[in-house]
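# step 3/5: fold
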Amino acid sequence: MTPRPFDERAVLCDNPLAVTNFRVFMFAPLLALLAASGCEKTNDVPHLKDEALATAKDYQQRFEELTRRADMIGRRANALPLETPNSVDARRVFARAMAGLEEYRGYLQQVPTRVQAGVTNGSPDELPKLIDELHKHLEDGVIDTTWGLSAVESWVAVAEQRRSAPQPSPAASPTETVPEGSPPIDPASGAPIR
């Protein structure tokens, strides 16, 4: 069988030195461009610092909203009598939510100092770790505090509803409903006494 012209393997040219030079000519500038455009951690520091402080500010606002909500719930709960059913449990949950609010607000006050320490430390991974920690720790705090406040708010709403509902009139005693002339009824068993 005779070889046909298209059966030959494809080559750029017969000169291997030209192929090598072509590769160097094409890939060296590409490699230099990629190296020059790579992220340098020192240039990311201001951006990461701003992101960490913005994250802290966002969570600060969320905790301030939760504090206002807690104050409103606390006023409503204090207006209820102490003998309200489940008041001990509700007050314990409320106290835990308030303690959590204080803990997370104290944590947020330390964030600017920690951000500055991450900037001056110069470790490229310090600020991203801090930002991840902020999101995880504070989001857990928002969820936990919101759960506690919602539980107490539900208890307060039910207690207020029960308190404002009209009280049923006392049931008539069995002796009052017995017609005259019939035998008296035993209050313990409800059966006529003979």
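# step 4/5: annotate
DSSP finds five helices and no strands in the chain.
# step 5/5: archive (pending)
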